[in-house]
Amino acid sequence: MAWQWSVRFPFEIEYCGIRFDEGFRADIIIEGKVILELKSIQKVNNAHKKQLLTCLRLTGLKLGYLLNFGEALMKDGITRTVNRLDED
Known about the structure:
By secondary structure, this protein is α+β, with helices and mostly antiparallel strands. The chain has one helix spanning 46-59, and strands at residues 5-15, 18-30, 34-39, 63-68, 78-82.
């Protein structure tokens, strides 16, 4: 079973009644549910994490990963971000 994915996917957004045909581009979208943001930097900071969270909120998606290829070990370069989990 193959997953559906899109690279550099443009998102339309509406904010305060103003529509932007291409509000931002997500690096990779998997199955229309998960955003992957790719970086190759020395260190991920809060601005990078906030950027991903903003993308999740604007799209209504719940899960995103920030993958930093600048780390010595890939496992140290993975940051998981969740948008408003339902609390039961």
